[in-house]
Every structure is written in C-alpha cells, then in structure tokens.
Amino acid sequence: MASRVIRTGNSLLRPLSTSAASRLHPALAAQSYRHFTATTSAMSSYYSWEPEGPTVKTEIPGPKAKAAIEELHEVFDTRSLNMLTDYQNSSGNYIADPDGNVLLDVYAQIASIPIGYNNPALIKAARGDDMINGLINRPALGNFPPKDWAEVLKTGILKVAPKGLNQVFTAMAGSDANETAYKAAFMWRRQHERGGPHVEFTQQEMDSAMKNELPPGAKEYSIMSFKTAFHGRLFGSLSTTRSKPIHKLDIPSFDWPQATFPLLKYPLEEHVEENHAAEKAALEEVEHLILNYRVPPCAVVVEPIQSEGGDNHASPEFFRGLREITRKHNVLFIVDEVQTGVGATGKFWAHEHWNLQDPPDMVTFSKKAQTAGYYFGNPELRPNKPYRQFNTWMGDPARALLFRAIVQEIERLDLVANTARVGDYLYGKLEGLAKKYPGQFDNLRGKGMGTFIAFDNPNRDEFLVRAKKFGVNIGGSGVSAVRLRPMLIFEERHADILLEALEKVVKSFQ
C-alpha cells in the first residue's frame, strides 16, 4: 500500500508499515494501523482544516500516551481515562493522541463538543477583547456583572431560548444547572403556600432553618425523577440520578420518588400496542406518586432521551401526557436538556419534537452550549429575595461568549438542519447493517432524532475498544448500548467512514 500523508493542525501523520500492523490480532491486522480513508471527498464541506480520514499508527494507548498516563496517574486519578488527547492536533470531527493516532470522534467529549475541535470561528471569538476581558477579570456575576452582560445574554444564551422561556439563571455545569432549578422549584412552592412573594419569613422559620429543622423553615417536598435517569452527581441532582449504583454508593440521598420510564420495544412499528401500554402505565404511576408519595413532589424532572441510562426513548405523546399531569396537579415540569440540547436531535431543543401545548417550566442546559444554566418564563420562579439563588460566579461570561459564537456558527451553516438530514441518512444505513448482522445492532433507536442514535451490542465494552483500532472513538451508555454523539458538523461522508468501521468491528468478532 502506498504511504499517504495527511495534515492535521501543524503535524504530518504517516501510517505505519504493513509489518507493524501485522503484529495485531489477526482479525484486526488487515484493517488497522493505517490511513483508512484517503479521498478528498471525505473532508469536511464546512471547513478546510479536517484530515482526510482516520489514521491509526499504534495501539491505543501507544507508547507516548502510556508514558504520559503513568506520569499523570501520580497526581491525578486516571482510572476513568478513555483516551489521552493531543488537542493541538485534533481538528473538526477528528480527535488525536500523542502517538499520532487520529480517530473519527462520534463521542465528542461525552456529547459536549458542538462544532468541532479547533473550530476557526471559536478561535476567532477566543482572541477577541471581550473574551480576554471575561477571562482575566472574571466577575462575581450576582454582585458585579459586566456592563454588557444583558447584551451578551440576549445575543447568545437567550437568543436560542426555548419558546415561552425568556429568562435564564446561568450556572457552571449540568449538575449545577439542575440543582439550582430544583432550588427554584422548592422556593416557588413554599412562596405560594405563604401567600405570595410579599409575605415575609417569620422568625420561627428563620430559626428552624438554621437548625436544619423541618418545618417551619422548610417543608418536606421532593423532586420526582425516573428510573435509569441521570441528572448529575451533586447532592441534590444525585438524588434524582438513577442510572448506575456507582454514582450513588456511600452518598446520603433524599427520600425522593422515582417513576418508571417506559422501556420501549423495537422496532417500534412491531410493538405499537405494547409500547402504548407501557407509556400509559408509566403516566399512571407518575400521577399516583404525585398524589400519594410520602414526600410530595413539587417538580418532575425528565430527560427527553435518557442518555447515561442507556439511550431510552419515549414518544411525544408520553411527554405531552407528562406535561398535562404536572399542570393538573400544580407540579413544575423540568426538562433536562443537558445532553440532548443544542441541535443534537435535529431540533435545537429535543423537547421541540413533542409539540407541547405550553412550554416546560424550566429547561436546563450545558454540554454543547459550553456553559450552563436553566431557562424559565414565569417571573414567580425568580426568588422573592436576593441571595437566595446565588453563588460567587453564577456562570462564566467567557463561556457565555463562546456559546454566542457557537450559536452564530450553527445559524450561519444551518447545522441543526444538517444534523436532521445526516441523522436520517445514518439511521437508514444502520437499519441495513442491523438486517445484515442480526444481534449486533439490536434495538436500533433514534429514528427522526437527528444523530442521537443508539443500538445494543452483546459485546459492547469490547466493541468500543475495537472501534478505536478501526479509527473511530465511540461511547456507550447503560448496560449494553453503543451511543452515537457526533458533532453538528458531522456529514454523510463522515457517516460512511463510521459505518464502514462499525461493520469491520462486527466482522472482527466472527
């Protein structure tokens, strides 16, 4: 095979010789340690800074990465490490490592990279005077917001606010966003019970609150979540997380209820009645818990697609039913769009697929937004006193500026429409692979939801490892799901590379 050279960042990447590749497991040697795609048509049509395709030069991790990981482990826990990354030489849809391996990245930092590594539009934004000012003079936003903070919010975070939600509380991360939304829900409920925002706290309430006594300074209310949900790892958000025991072991939790998330059967068209019955039963359980749980819920939080818990979907009818139940019983409806938001599902916000009669009460966001917080519309969700919803930073202007640049680039290139189109293409091709290799692409799900696609594989963990050998970085969720989380600049040409690699991974098990 003739050696081809590609440029990524400032480095030239050359494939290893066939003899080096032959040292691999025989099933992998023929297709590994080489440049997989070598046609200019494989490059991005949006930008010119992508490589032509993946290049695998060594095992992953290779010798340079192993040495660096060993050094890092002396001072930092590396046991969850996926891949030591060379960010300077990562570009577009491709992630690089210190040994010169370049992989098509369809995991994207756990779904948090929106428009590619080293995107020139974001580099330009990062070099701006307003970004420098935000970085070196980081403000305590609640006390000392910058003079242009309203303009930054209106031209960025609030420009893409979900319909009906015109205010935002900015935060640091997804867990933080959910946690502050929960606080807003508790304060909203107690404010109503007192008679409105004008009613002052009693001395008894203030004294009991300082002693952690219930009541009157607080009242036992809960946030309802769903089985196999993930909403973060902070204390409040962790009490609503139900995806894996490892997240929760040894951590005290609140006595908050969990409802059953309807686990649909696939293909959907073959299990219409069963799935309808499962969703109906789940909604009935939600209403029963609202009315009867020993710690009454004041809010229900739900992911449009349960991501960490296994990529579990439900129908728009289910979510409309959930909204109706919360409205009926005066319980707030919080939609956690931390992973699903910012275009990944072919809509800017995944809950747009539901066609709700009225919007959620709060929508939390992070990941692809590169900042975090929650949107809301009801002015009563703003606490009646200052400092009740507060911390030093309350977000980060630099990250808000980055999100504004991301939004501008998404709009300029119409990337949400791109995700919807490419998702349909990718899903159709995966349906073909599922028929060709029975049992290897089980429970294929995510049709019509952009590139937010997943399937189950019986050898999932090894599947993810072998994918790297074939030039793809991919992630899992739940017990057996392979989840796809491409960036918004992922195109049909990248899908073809991914599909070819997935087929090779499956063949390597035969």
Automatic annotation (TrEMBL):
Family matches, as InterPro entries: 4NH2But_aminotransferase_euk, Aminotrans_3, Aminotrans_3_PPA_site, PyrdxlP-dep_Trfase, PyrdxlP-dep_Trfase_major, PyrdxlP-dep_Trfase_small
Xref: PROSITE patterns: AA_TRANSFER_CLASS_3
SUPFAM superfamilies assigned to the protein according to its UniProt record, in alphabetical order: PLP-dependent transferases (SSF53383)
Keywords: Aminotransferase, Pyridoxal phosphate, Transferase
CDD domains: OAT_like
Enzyme class: transferase
Upper classification of the organism: Eukaryota, Fungi, Dikarya, Ascomycota, Pezizomycotina
Cofactor: pyridoxal 5'-phosphate
Annotated Gene3D superfamilies: Aspartate Aminotransferase, domain 1, Type I PLP-dependent aspartate aminotransferase-like (Major domain)
GO molecular function, one term: pyridoxal phosphate binding
Record protein name field: 4-aminobutyrate aminotransferase
NCBIfam families: GABAtrns_euk (TIGR00699)
EC number per UniProt: 2.6.1.19
Domain of life of the organism encoding this protein: Eukaryota
